[in-house]
Design a protein that fits this description.
Helix content: 10-25%
Number of helices: 2
Structural class: alpha+beta
Bound molecules: zinc ion
Number of strands: 3
Largest sheet: 3 strands, antiparallel
Radius of gyration: 14 Å
Length: 121
């Protein structure tokens, strides 16, 4: 059986790990928008967020990229799907995110629910 793994991230520690999102990984999908399985950060114990299959983990020191990822996640964006659609790519820099969120209310990758990292447990 091929394991179908997704990226889970901790925005406090700036780390991401590949983990299972559902028990039966053979039925996994790249379009999955959230996880059935809860994963805790091995560093700090905070619940890690489901980022989707295609999240490219920024370097730990790139705080702008991590802030962008956090804002996108909080707004409901996930790094899901094939990546091939006509909507603009998700921004990687913090300063580009607010206007991007405002201009893309129906983006193909806006598949998750709005969340707050500080309240996510
Ligand atoms: Zn952590």
């Amino acid at each position: 059986m091929t394991e179908f793994l997704h990226k889970f991230a901790c925005f406090d520690c700036h780390v991401a790990f590949k983990r299972q999102a559902i028990e039966n990984t053979s039925s996994g999908s790249a379009h999955q928008s959230d996880s059935e399985i809860v994963h805790m950060c091995p560093n700090c114990g905070h619940r890690m967020v489901f980022m989707g299959r295609n999240f490219a983990t920024p370097p730990k020191s790139d705080s702008s990229a991590w802030a962008a990822a956090k804002s996108l996640w909080e707004a409901g964006f996930r790094f899901v799907g094939s990546g091939y659609h006509s909507d603009p790519a998700l921004p990687k820099s913090k300063s580009d995110v607010p206007i991007f969120i405002e201009q893309n209310p129906k983006h193909k990758q806006r598949v998750g629910t709005k969340q707050q990292w500080k309240n996510y447990a």
